[in-house]
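Need tokens for this chain, all 370 residues.
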Amino acid sequence: MRNKNLKSAKRAKRDEFYTQLRDIENELKHYKSHFRNKVVYCNCDDPKVSNFFHYFSYNFEELGLKKLITTCYKNRNVGIFRQHKELERAAYIEYTGDKNDNLRPDPEEIEVKYLEGDGDFRSRECVELLKTANIIVTGPPFSLFREYLAQLVQYNKKFLIVGNKNALTYKEVFPLIKENKVWLGMGSVREFEVPNGNRAKATFCSQRNKWFQKFGNVGWFTNLSHSRRNEELILTKKYTSDEFPHYDNYDAIEVSKVKDIPKNGGGYMGVPITFLDKYNPEQFEIIGLINSNSDSGIKELKKYDEYIEMRINGSPTGSSGKKTNGNPILKESDMLENKKKEIIIIPKIKNEKVYSLYSRITNKNKNHEN
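Here are the structure tokens for all 370 residues:
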């Protein structure tokens, strides 16, 4: 048990990234109407360092909140409000607004309560607090994102959370995207503050005396409506067979850039994952996800068990083409020359080359021109 706890502590430290206040402010400004008379719960937030707590406590009256609750894993210092040493007991904090008209959270206005457990968001006590809340806003541990999101869906909670966009293709997450139960927020989060013990990939900023780590694929996941959710994507391209080739193994066309989605033709198309940044459910219907581990939503027409996987330089990898079954595949004649460096070559015995692409979202344009 001691070894298990040590591993859990190490994982928690690697997952410790602090969302910056500017990113929170830039995203939350699009959702202010959702918060009036609501209980907000930040259940992965040490109030000493959490900018989520800072944002909601300092904007409590402007947002018209009813209550703010924060919890975090034990052994975090809640001494932001009390002059005492780090506590071994997990605590949670409730704030119900300004009482002395100075429009800021004072220590005497913030109630610190103790938990019997460790403050893990999955614990019985934290689940009970979750049930009392209307909206959950936080940055959960990246390594537990699947489990964290599943809990929010299970308890039918409104939420706005930070997550790695790689999660969009997880088998536990993509069905929620397809069913319009989860969608992307407005912005991205490109840089996090990290604690001193988690700075292997971080850069020190001397002006701010803090460590920061950059990410290229982190954003907001939500089920709160926002202005871009129903914004129509302007389409200017027209379908031609030369520019939009059919996959070798699906009855769908390849659209390699979201901006190039054709405005005419009502068939299936495969588009990059970045399509979800522009996805409007009134304009498009998501059918599935084309890759080797997901349901494309359309019939797979061909397998590649007899193919041999090759590197770009022509040397074999030792794998068969079987591992690419289900992926979007194009014939060599349909590949643009400048794209051949980005994908895997799979030659057949008779030297028929096909190319395995990255994951694609299968969708249809609901409002297509004929």
